[in-house]
Each structure stands twice: as C-alpha cells, then as structure tokens.
Specification:
Strand content: 15-25%
Low-confidence stretches: none
GO molecular function, one term: hydrolase activity
Strand order of the largest sheet: 3-2-1-4
Organism: Streptomyces sp. SID7499
Keywords: Hydrolase
Protein name: Hydrolase
Radius of gyration: 12 Å
Number of strands: 4
Mean pLDDT: 92
Order of helices and strands: HEEEEH
Distance between the termini: 16 Å
Structural class: alpha+beta
Length: 86
C-alpha cells in the first residue's frame, strides 16, 4: 500500500526521494539514494533500491522532492493519496 501511494505522489509531482521508518523495536530508518535527512546526525541506513524499503513492515514513509518545499509537497501528496499523507 505504501509503495502504491508513493507511486501516486510521483505521478503528481515527478520523482521523489523516500525513506521509511520500520516497525518494531529493532526497526531502522532506511533511506534511498538522494534522500537527505533533515537532521543528518540521526541514524539511518542507505539502501540500494527502493524495493528494499518495503522488505519489512513500515510505520512511516518520509518523502522529499528535489524542488518542492515541504508544504507544497505535502499538499500535492494529500491531493494524490488523501488522508494517507500527513
């Protein structure tokens, strides 16, 4: 479901960079190439493919766009996927 929502967002705004927070006490933050952490000191592990983001259950998907700011991207995401985007 999360990967489908991400595809709908990309259909609206073009390519985005994604990261996920995995579910569970041992869950990690995974980031794909191009995703910039807002706080680079937080621990995150880079993955080679977007498919690797979905290998375990996730509790949150984080999205960045190379040109759109957070507010514009959030508005476009809400338009594409409704309440799934916050």
């Amino acid at each position: 479901a999360a990967d489908t929502a991400l595809g709908k967002i990309e259909a609206e705004v073009g390519a985005v960079f994604a990261a996920v927070d995995q579910d569970g006490v041992d869950g990690a933050t995974l980031i794909e190439a191009g995703y910039r952490m807002p706080n680079p000191t937080l621990p995150a592990r880079r993955v080679d493919t977007r498919a690797a983001l979905w290998e375990r259950p996730v509790i949150k998907v984080l999205v960045r766009h190379p040109e759109l700011g957070d507010d514009a991207l959030a508005a476009a995401a809400r338009g594409a996927v409704g309440d799934l985007a916050t």
